[in-house]
Amino acid sequence: MNIPHKHAALIKAWADGAIIQILWNHPEEWKDCDEPTWLENSYYRIKPQVKTIKFRCFLQEGPTLRDGRKCPPRICTIRADQVYLTRPKFIQWLGDWQEYTIKEEKTQENCICRSVHNCNCK
């Protein structure tokens, strides 16, 4: 019976164009690997995708309650990719546009930690 190579799924993904990373020990970090050697004692993964979200905070008038009382202003955010009309309750911007980068969540396809410490990435 043929036992598949330890990195068979990653090898297939690499052949299909995925960017592969290798875990370096000194310092311990993931580095892109253009031509992986697929050593049994090395750890590889598919490079996680990143998504950048651009947003800006602003101050908006609070709502008016049924009894006529006014709630205090509230801080709101708007993403750069959102379409929005002029807001009648807009007061002022609270700073410049900000960017936040998010890495893709771990999956069993791009995670080696199961083999390292038996996690249950989903």
What does this structure look like?
It is built from 2 helices and 7 strands. It is mainly beta. The chain folds into 2 domains: 8-49 and 104-117, no CATH class; 51-100, no CATH class. The strands form 2 sheets. Strands 4, 5, 6 and 7 form a 4-stranded antiparallel β-sheet that branches. It has a 3-stranded antiparallel β-sheet with strand order 2-1-3.
How are the secondary structure elements laid out?
Blueprint: H1 8-15, E1 20-25, E2 28-32, E3 44-46, E4 50-60, E5 74-79, E6 90-93, E7 98-103, H2 113-117
Antiparallel strand pairs: 1-2, 1-3, 4-5, 4-6, 4-7
Task: Provide a compact summary of the structure.
With 122 residues, this protein is mainly beta.
Main traits of this protein?
single chain, 122 residues, mainly beta, 4-stranded antiparallel beta sheet, 3-stranded antiparallel beta sheet, 2 helices, 7 strands, rod-shaped, disordered C terminus
Mean pLDDT across all residues, rounded? Answer: 81
Number of H- or I-type helical stretches: 2
Oligomer: single chain
Major beta sheet summary: 4 strands, antiparallel
Beta-strand fraction estimate = 25-35%
Low-confidence stretches: 114-122
Tally of structural domains: 2
Q: What series of H and E elements makes up the topology? A: HEEEEEEEH
What structural class do the secondary elements suggest? mainly beta
Distance between the termini: 29 Å
Number of DSSP strand runs: 7
